[in-house]
Amino acid sequence: MYKLTLIIRYLLKRRIxxxxxxTVALCVFIVVVVMTVMSGLVGQFKQKNHDFVxxxxxxxxxxxxxPYYEELMDxxxxxxxxxxxxxxxKNYGLLRPQYDREQYVExxxxxxxxxxxxxxxxxxxxxxxxxxxxxxxxVYEPNALGCVLGIDxxxxxxxxxxYTHDARPRRAAFALTCFPLNARGAPAMAGTTVxxxxxxxxxxxxxxGIARVDGSTVYIPLEQAQSLCMAGQRKRxxxxxxxxxxxxxxxxxxxxxxxxxxxxxxxxIDAPDGRLLETVAVEDWKEYRRAFIAPMExxxxxxxxxxxxxxxxxxxxxFVVFYMIVSHKTRDxxxxxxxxxxxxxxxxxxxxxxxxxxxxxxxxxxxxxxLFLARINRIxxxxxxxxxxxxxxxxxxxxxxxxxxxQVHGLAVIAxxxxxxxLIGALVPAYSAARLRPVETLHGSxx
Length: 447
Known about the structure:
Layout: H1 2-13, H2 15-53, E1 56-60, H3 69-77, E2 82-97, E3 103-110, H4 112-118, H5 121-124, E4 146-150, H6 151-154, E5 173-178, E6 196-206, H7 211-214, E7 217-221, H8 222-229, E8 239-244, H9 250-268, E9 280-284, H10 285-288, H11 290-328, H12 330-338, H13 343-374, H14 376-387, H15 408-435, H16 438-446
Parallel strand pairs: 3-7, 4-6
Antiparallel strand pairs: 1-8, 1-9, 2-3, 2-5, 2-8, 4-7, 5-6
């Protein structure tokens, strides 16, 4: 009972303990806010990439592509784990607007209906979200070839990350220039011209939420992409994207596809152009998009390491505070030991005090962080209106609202480590207090 009484007394009467609680609260507040925002951004980015490619990709990194994909799709659709598949042609070219300079773009040839079953392509469309089958049909020129442009290629993003959409797609023509390759990887038109050109009309825009995609991708019909980019007797694609049925574990589904692909490749390795199957790999969505996801994950890891140093700072601050408390409370320690308190009891007293400091600081820091995160977007809006300040310039970064959803599990982990940091910081001072002798401390106090 005396331990609790002394802990309350120290908390209420020693101002330096208020400083310790405030320090812990400030550290916890910073960690909660920054980690919530950073984790939210990384989580959103991963989810957008997952939505963009589906669950699994059977694809070739070569621009030549691979044949026999229709037979592969038939086999994939027979698997119980597979819900939908979508063939995709990926290539690069030059986009030349009618009255503007040409731009280097990435071409994706897709079947919009199939692709919408595997990815969230339909939901990204500005005008055909409910009717992806007509995504490549220009409303002002129904018989012309249509293309879907990444939204940043056709619309301007304002400072609040908003786009101004017209009631219908405006009339705009684009010339696409590609470099078609045959099955051997050589230019398909050598001797005449090494490029192929075709005119497309703007039919819709796609807002995937991935800045690199929305600012450089042009979607065209699968057949047109094959004609422009892949010459030869056998039709080829760059990849087959796959969505698994709900409840199917990603690793299990990918292993099933890998097994199927191994058998499929072995059966056709000696067929015409069968050597192209050697360039194909089966990857889950994280592996397929690792070049884009890995940098974000590394930034998140680096941020965690930096906050580890913040925790070390907290340990040293608590150490200094408790060292000062112990040095000024030697008489209290002497009295306690003279009336029968053990060294373990004294150490438990100061450890309990450190626990309470860490607990109070954690609760205060978490409460402040939670309140701040709940209002962070309103605070940024106010700062923008008054001072023109934004955490991220929305005309450059494709970020809407700042992530502010707090994970209870994450808060518990932060609070746990804050309390542990306080206990570690108080360990040496508490041990020193436990070693004090009653006679020395009481004699020193009378002197």
